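re: that chain from earlier
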Amino acid sequence: MAISQSVGWMIGVLLSVFASWVGAASKLVIRKSWKIIEGVKEEDDNYLTLFARSRFLHSLGLFGMTVLNPACGIGAMKFANPSLLAPFSGLTLVWVVLFSKSTTGEEPTLVQIIAASTIVLGEIIVTLFGDHSNEDELSLDRFNDIYRSPKMIAYFTGFGVFYTLVTLGCKSNHPMIEKLSWGLSGGSIAGLLMFIKDSLSLFKTESPWHWQIWLFLSGAMFVGLYGIRCLSYCMKRYDTTYSATMFVVSYIFSADIMSLIRYDIYKNMDTVSQKVMFPVGMIILLGGVIVLMTEKIPGFCWRTVGACRREDAKPLLDGDNSAIVGVGDENRSLSSADDKL
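^ sequence. v structure.
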């Protein structure tokens, strides 16, 4: 039985809302899996029970992010236009803010709530006024021409340099650099959406045995799984609100920059309002990111632009004062239970 267009878009919206909830729940569950073994030692009586529970929750969260969430997102695309569904990705942050306290015991601060709301507003503006065109089919000749062009070679070179700096930043002794780097590590690489989009477009016009298709499908799997891995380790170190928000924002920024270069989205913007509001939305997003990334960094305070000492910095592990959230330490060591995850 065919579903009418008037009903189909509502199904797409419901699936997209559910996908955002699954994404948020998965992130919270992974954060919970790290927290329940904080400070636990192998000689403790409840070590095996807590370790098994932690592994189960961690696996459950990864399943939600790698299987259930993408499945709902793909299903939603069958019923509604992506331009309608894209803003609902911001709901992930809303669910995280709403349920952080009840699931992980981490109550979002007022600054985090305002920053997350600002980011969601920026996401909505970018989505509404961005390029809504779609390159549905792609020939092998055009594919080769695109990815051999100087601009794409420059893009991949630039991204390689950027991600190398992000990786080095995760080991930095500077708290802000370390925190920002972990926040950017997952979403920025997961945002390389041309791997999945162009491989599927090639499938529609070319034989499935071309090596370019399988190279890009392999690339799509790698950037997706590696992005989730980075997000998991970010949530091991920082609260869920920060980790989830930075993942979503860096994902959007990475995808938008890639689209500017690969798909020439500005050429497809027909109205002045699109060309004006798209960068406005990006600026609003950036403002929220700056506020969020400096929240709870030891020694930083917005009231005096970093001059006052923050007293609310929390240790990564109970009883381990050398492992402070956001503070690099060459001698930092996690508990043996954490390392086994």
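The radius of gyration is 21 Å.
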